[in-house]
Design goal:
By secondary structure, the chain is of the alpha/beta class. The protein folds into 2 domains: 36-133 and 266-332, Bordetella uptake gene, domain 1 (D-Maltodextrin-Binding Protein, domain 2), CATH 3.40.190; 136-264, Periplasmic binding protein-like II (D-Maltodextrin-Binding Protein, domain 2, 3-Layer(aba) Sandwich), CATH 3.40.190. Helices cover 42% and strands 19% of the residues. The protein has 11 helices and 10 strands. It has helices spanning 2-31, 54-68, 87-94, 109-115, 150-159, 175-186, 204-209, 220-228, 277-290, 294-303, 312-332; strands at 43-47, 76-80, 102-106, 127-142, 165-168, 195-198, 215-219, 232-237, 264-271, 306-310. Strands 1, 2, 3, 4, 5, 6, 7, 8, 9 and 10 form a 10-stranded mixed β-sheet that branches. The longest helix has 30 residues, at 2-31.
Amino acid sequence: MVKFTMRLIALFFVFMLAACGGNSETTSSTNGSSEDFQPKKPIEVIAPAGPGGGWDTTARTVAKVLEEEKIINQRMAVVNKPGGGGAVGWAYVHGKKGDNHTMFVTSPPILFVPLNGQSDLDHNDFTPIAGVIADYAAFIVSADSQFNSMNDLVEALKKDPKSVSVVGDSAPGSMDHLVFVKAVKAAGVDVTQLKYVSAQDGNGMSMLLGGKVDVYSTGLAEATEQARAGKVKVLAITAPERLDGETVSEFPTLKEQGIDDEFIVWRGFMGPPEMDEAAVKYYENAIQKMMETETWQEQRDNFGWTDNFMSSEEFKAHLDNEYNTMKALMEEIGLVK
């Protein structure tokens, strides 16, 4: 009888240990170890705009390097879903709740567009995966412009904010507009009186070169191309310090002209709502590994990008902070809907 009782006690402890082991394994999966997930089918990478822009270029470059370096052993299929300043693509991804094989490239418009009322979805409706690169904006004028520096432009705007027309390829309250607003506000300009022209058909550069507007707020890549051709002057870029590289090293920053402002056009990736933590960790690690490869570094330098890796958690904190900053700015100029 004693032996039988001892056997029962021993069996009880075996079952208890097994149960504890099972609980530990479940906890590991819940915490989202990247080893708990492997993609089982092609991954759809959404660029919420047409071909050729910053979202499209970033999506295709990242997908290409991840495939070529065999960091992700599934096809990365880039799909363009333009419209609504990104809203069409976001709605598509949002409809794939819990899908671990869909992601999209994002940047500041995920904050601006919802704030100005063009989308019901904002960054809180998606799963942050990782921040990847930093790009910068540029403020340019035609080669024969009366303005030779950002301070020249600021002086004219202080005298009469409506005397200078500023064009951007985004809608009022979106990136090209707000980057410029933020910069001249830091210089003391009354930003509620600015004359902003929206060229959403992408012809901002033609309007500048055709003499229809005075200033073009645009991306660094487009500014560099026209500056190299001698068609424009770059008054300032929004980088924290001068950049390295042919032509771009000649562009002055806002800060070196006494304007205490900078703006990073960050780009990163997000997934649908309720994406598994293990999948998020898998993609986060894959992107970080990709950024260490020579293939990526060559592509990055070719586009004039700067590495700006953020983990999922860091990316979420960055988005929250940027959202609050932009909301305050947009409320001041009456653009929050």
